[in-house]
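Review box. Two proteins, two foldings.
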Amino acid sequence: MKRARFALLLAASALALSVPFGNAAFANDKLVELAKSNQNWVMPGKNYNSDNFSPMTQIDDKNVKQLKAAWSFSTGLLHGHEGAPLVVEGVMYVHTSFPNYTFALDLKDPGHILWQHKPKQDPAARSVACCDLVNRGLAYWPGEGSTPPLILKTQLDGNVLALNAKTGEEFWKVENSDIKVGSTLTIAPYVVKDLVLVGSSGAELGVRGYVTAYDVKTGAQKWRYYATGPDEDVGLADDFNKANPHYGQKGLGTATWEGDAWKIGGGTNWGWYAYDPGTDLFYYGSGNPAPWNETMRPGDNKWTMTIWGRDAETGKAKFGYQKTPHDEWDYAGVNVMMLSDQKDKAGKARKLLTHPDRNGIVYTLDRENGELVSADKIDDTVNVFTQVDLKSGVPVRVPEKGTRMDHVARDVCPSAMGYHNQGHDSYDPDRQLFFMGINHICMDWEPFMLPYRAGQFFVGATLSMYPGPKGDRQNSLGLGQIKAYNAISGKYKWEKMEKFAVWGGTLATKGNLVFYTTLDGFLKARHADTGELLWKFKLPSGGIGYPMTYEHDGVQYVAVMYGVGGWPGVGLVFDLQDPTAGLGAVGAFKELQNYTQMGGGVMVFSLDGKGPYDDVKVGEFEAN
């Protein structure tokens, strides 16, 4: 932490600091209770399981055709709008792309802005941001003692802020990332107990990834650990990987790199977190190594591309499983972590973590000790690996799909975008099904050498992307899928194709429904059992966020961010024409501009468009 600026009076700061850390459990319990309520959506993923599942049934498979727009809100900004809004006790909190505005909207009077936070940022952050100027969301902390309820946010310029949830006033502000070396922030903060967990972005510029915990009341840094480097930097517990020593233990954060390459080796984490209060572990993934050109960094490059289980209070890692040693394809492993309690094939009750990875494999681990339970292909067209060896945990590579120098790797499936990317998926515990949004995209890859320069892109590869084998390569369509997956059997109950990538993720409800957005701008509802399309609505712009749902005054609503952008929309957003521009995205999504345009906001739906508003009565506003 380089600097911290607090928007508190000194007396208030002293009071906040005087509250013992042991009271954190109280705040955590309150957040858990709020997450259980249908009236609230208090964190990314809805709850600590991060399952995006709602038990509400007012909207179901029988009446979903009656969904109509109830109200909408424009953020007034372009670029991609990822993630989902929060709803807490009658207020919707909306985030945006750069310059990272935050709006608090009164659900009793839709569109009424209770407060807005419009920060001033260093415009230099724009030039070092990879793949559009997105932000993935907000976090909420319920307050305690003299500390009010807080909204936590990140900014592209590397700052983390706490805002008074009632007024929008800055409570504290701290610099987490240094944009001078290309380190930015796009991640949604994550609240556990009295801690705010924050990752980092910038592996494409050689940024060494880390995760940091801040005191939610003051912004003071509690701990920080890295993905690469000496064990003390990485934060390995004494019993690290004790249950699975074959995954690797001590000394590998430097030994699996050539020289000091680990210092500019990437492994940032900008995706989604999950937390288990029972194990007191939080779970996340570290991303791709830098540069993309694998010839420049021999070795397994630990601990990039790793699923981590860390102690929330100390930050020490209990386990780390590296999915793709020596990643050659930019398969940044930061995707969603979803927690479930299920019986395995032997009938043993297990506490599980399921993670659909960019490398085309969906992994399920025992979240108590990190043991690999299953590893199935996201699609049968994955061709970089034949399988994952469940005993060693290592994927079995197909040599011709490697990306070594003096070799152009062709028809590599999945592409660097992955068959799954940042979308936040859902899990239906009644059906034991995960509903996953898929990018059905392959690529050609040609590496080249380049020097490292701080604050400049450090990639070293030219990519061409196009639809996967099940798509329409001639017309650049068929770039996405939606799938229902059972992690125990490894089988897919159903799958459906889409014109464009399903980038944002899914929402599952007890009403037998799965909601999701498409890049060309549709919000869709399918039957959870069959995948049958039951309803769709064309949004004002493409969707790269995931739907959420809440109840207000007895009415169930479904809300979703809209605003095309992100990596797949980078060509449209920046008006790029070269098919290899945007790290290969422009060629794959060249048809997108014919289906949608930019513009961000939120749309909210209910049965028959019901909402908390009435016609203004004649004379209502006349002076007395």
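Next protein.
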Amino acid sequence: MFPRSSRNKKGRTLRIRERERMPVAIFVNAAGARQEVDVPNGVNLVEAAIDKGVQELAAICGGYLQCATCHVFVEEDFLNRLPPRSVDEDSMLDSTAEPRRENSRLACQIVMNDTLTGIVVHMPDRQM
């Protein structure tokens, strides 16, 4: 049996390695404050934001593509890593509180995967 300290140290190292493998999204509010959030693969950014308490992302419908209150601006480096907007997302972006831009997306439609780790999304000043 390993001494208690070795077992704890080994366990701590394992947890750090697991966290390093989890993709990360960075939410930036209108004031420029950044919040880094671990997002498991297959989880959309709204679910992660709600789970981690990102306050500025309204997401009134809970991430079901029904309200456009999860409007974000994706940094250019990540735009080409995202799938094209669906017809529904494109239509919903016409009803956002802040005018849509070329890099506008709905966070509920951004599903995390390893190629998106480090994605930076800026939240507009107004969501409603």
